[in-house]
Amino acid sequence: MKNLVLFGPPGAGKGTQAAFLKETYGLIHISTGDVFRFNIKNETELGTLAKSFMDKGELVPDQVTIDMLSAEVAKNLDSKGFIFDGFPRNVLQAEALDVLLDSYDTEISAMIALEVDDEVLVERLLKRGETSGRPDDANDTVVRNRIKIYYNETAILKSYYAAKDKYFGVDGVGSVEDITVRLNAVIDSLK
Ligand code: AMP
C-alpha cells in the first residue's frame, strides 16, 4: 500500500491537490475536515460535537477524531492506499495512525508538505470563505487562529516524520498544475 500524509497549513491547497493525486495513483482520499463537515450537514451527533470546535477554529478532541479516522480506514482496506488530508494534526494522532496502519501490516510511505507563506494563506482562506460557505474560512480571527494552532501543535510533525526519513517539502506557491507536477515527482521517487 502507498499511504501518504498530505501536510501543510490551512489554505495550502491540500484538498485541491488530493483530488488529482487520488486519480493519478488510485488512492482513497480521507479528509478529516470533510468527514466532519459531512456529519455537520447531516446533523449527526458527531457533527454537532465537531461543530462546536470547528466554528472557533479549534481542533476536535483527539479520540473522537482518531475513532472516526479508524472507521474510514476500515471501510477501504482493499484499496491501493490512502491520502490522509488534515490528519494527523499532532503527535498523539500521528502515533495512533502508526499503530492503526501497523495493525493492517502497512505504514506511512511519506509525509508530503505543501509549503506556503502565512500572508498568502490568510488571503487564500478569506477568499475561499466568500464562496465555500465554510464559517471557519469567513472570519479573519478564526482563520488566524487555525494557522496559529497549525504552528503550535501541527508543525512539529515535520520532525516526527523527518526522523523516520519520511518528510518531503514541496513549494506550494505557483499554478495548481505546477504544484501537481512537483508532488508527482516526489511520489514517483518513493520506493
Ligand atoms: P480542515 O478542513 O482540515 O481545514 O479542518 C477543518 C476543521 O476540522 C479544523 O479546524 C478542526 O476543527 C477540524 N479537524 C479536521 N481535522 C482534524 C484533526 N485531525 N484533528 C482535530 N480536528 C480536526
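^ adenosine monophosphate complex. The chain has a mean pLDDT of 95. The chain is about 60% helix and 15% strand.
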